[in-house]
Amino acid sequence: MSARTTGQVRVVGTGLLGTSIGLGLSSLAVDVVLDDVSPATLALAVDYGAGRPTKPADAPALVVVAVPPDVTADVVAAELARYPEALVTDVASVKAGPLAALEAAGAATDRYLGGHPMAGRERGGPIAGRADLFLGRPWVITPHAGSRPEHAAVLEALALDLGAVPVRLAADRHDDAVAVVSHAPQLVSSLLAARLVDAPDHATDLAGQGLRDTTRIAASDPTLWVEILSANAARILPILTDLRDDLDAVLDALADPSARGARRALADVLAAGNDGVARIPGKHGVDLRTTTMVVLVDDRPGQIARLLTEIGELGVNLEDMRLEHSPGAPIGIVEIAVAPEVAGGLEADLRGRGWRIA
């Protein structure tokens, strides 16, 4: 496949996002040049195939700044000055602050257009980079009063080359959105996981997929997240304040579950959670209600592959899938989600082929 992105692309910062961008573009034969304040980090990204080191004669058409949020504006300004013909973008998770700082500094914001790929991993650094990191993920582009329409098209081409879905949002709306779908959840996950520090071994030994799901992002880099949360604090604070109020109501109900209205209060919280989960887009970017079934799979090589192959042979499209396996257990659990109208037939067909449905 040929790349939509034309010209040389310079990536500044070779952490997870920068390296992943370099890997994805390099796989499409785009000339990617890399830079990083850390020579060791840069060398590692080059060894992984994310691009080549910068040379004095390089003339990028596009510069992607992938550095921590607290230095994003400074690095963007430096790149705008260094390459006066280039479009400069960034991938910081907060957009309004860097834009305001650039405008206040008198930078050439007509050549700056912010972006934010909604993708990541708990691990960081070039060793965690993946060419497919952005596959199917939204890539937010934040036009502003001084930006040019043709520059948005360049960033859309970049996102599409990396398998992402371009989305345009104003910087303020972006920051409001990530506060509720990314930043607050990070804190909630971390607070929950922190309860495990002093938990006895017999409790953590019982941990199942529910706990793993709700604490997965708690393994993220604290240094990076302190910067992200500080940069968007004003928008995160009211969300957590409302959450605190809801938690107070739960505490009151649990203090006396037999009191009048206590069970109703708990039920309302749980039902609101159901409604919230239903609003999370499915894989096609739309609200999608699915039916879930659990298939028990023998712990032998090739069983999951056989299950997926047979589902495909039956003409059923998977909307989602999760795996769970406890160490030493003779079976694994495959939780599959399909459209409600095909669930009944799929269950019958799988049973007919010898699969065990929980």
UniProtKB/TrEMBL annotation:
Gene3D superfamilies: 3.30.70.260, 6-phosphogluconate dehydrogenase C-terminal like domain, NAD(P)-binding Rossmann-like Domain. Pathway: Amino-acid biosynthesis; L-tyrosine biosynthesis; (4-hydroxyphenyl)pyruvate from prephenate (NAD(+) route): step 1/1. It comes from the Bacteria. The keyword Amino-acid biosynthesis applies. Its EC number is 1.3.1.12. It catalyses: prephenate + NAD(+) = 3-(4-hydroxyphenyl)pyruvate + CO2 + NADH. Residues 7-284 form the Prephenate/arogenate dehydrogenase domain. Keywords: Amino-acid biosynthesis, Aromatic amino acid biosynthesis, NAD, Oxidoreductase, Tyrosine biosynthesis. It is an enzyme of class 1 (oxidoreductase). One of its GO terms (biological process) is tyrosine biosynthetic process. InterPro entries: 6-PGluconate_DH-like_C_sf, ACT-like_dom_sf, ACT_dom, NAD(P)-bd_dom_sf, PDH_C, PDH_N, Preph/Arog_dehydrog, Prephen_DH. One of its GO terms (molecular function) is NAD+ binding. Residues 292-358 form the ACT domain. The keyword Metal-binding does not apply. PANTHER family: PREPHENATE DEHYDROGENASE, PREPHENATE DEHYDROGENASE [NADP(+)]. Belongs to the prephenate/arogenate dehydrogenase family. This is Prephenate dehydrogenase. It comes from Amnibacterium kyonggiense.
